[in-house]
Amino acid sequence: MPLDLLHDRIEHGLPLCLADGVDSAVLAVRKQIRRGAKVIKICATGGVLSRIDSPTAAQFNNSELEAMVEEATRTNLLVAAHAHGTSGIIAALNAGVKTIEHGSYLDDEAIALMKEKGAIPVATRFIQVNGVRNPQNMPPGSFKKILVVEQENLRSYKAAIKAGVKIALGTDLGLSFEASNFNHGMNGHEFALDAYSRLRDSVEAGMTPLQAIEAGTATAPETLGPQAPLSGQLKEGYDADFIALCEDPVADIRVLARPDKVTHVWKGGESFKSAGRSVGLWSA
């Protein structure tokens, strides 16, 4: 994203901050807390959609990372790190970050550190596979990046699963448009991609269907820590957020990628979808 466009969006309410140096990093976290943030997400490495940085390049030094984690922890918030490259992942983990979003270039040291610190990787397979399949959705430079990053992400994800790292599912989706092929109604594809990679001949990524379901339901709330104390279980007194399906996802995980197979949706105990009830894009 061009820097002038980023500044313009920040000025008009996009919940982002640029930070350089320890004092600036602390101020950035405090700004997000004042805006009501429930989790602090930092960009520990470059990305795919950004124009001039490399996904493997670290973006903060250790002092900056530690300061941001310390400030978030002061108000009982966990920190998530967008991190593709190995050095940025390891630095974020050493600083106390709870979740690694993407984690595309994991090595043995990073995987061991995740297990040691109880950190959770969120591989975001769906949006990466979707990017590879739809070059028209991104600039040519970004498409060249995703072709490489997606393969590294899959390799790293398999390694983390094989090593027994605790996994949570997340889609990296923050938008929903009628014309989009990755809107919120398509989130269930993340389950299928975590059990089976649909990109090339159903290559197994290493999870069983039940493990993928657990990663998206029981484990996912752990990425929010104290901010989601009553999520992740079907239990009296817990948040009643759940769905009903007309087919068994343990028998075929791809059922979760089919909105027409979701017969009921409850959010906070309130029914948002049921048989015979018309549901719009934003209410599903």
Automatic annotation (TrEMBL):
Any Pfam family hit: Amidohydro_1
Any GO molecular function: hydrolase activity, acting on carbon-nitrogen (but not peptide) bonds
Domain of life: Eukaryota
Domain Amidohydrolase-related, first and last residues per copy: 17-270
Name of the protein in question: Amidohydrolase-related domain-containing protein
Record lineage: Eukaryota, Fungi, Dikarya, Ascomycota, Pezizomycotina
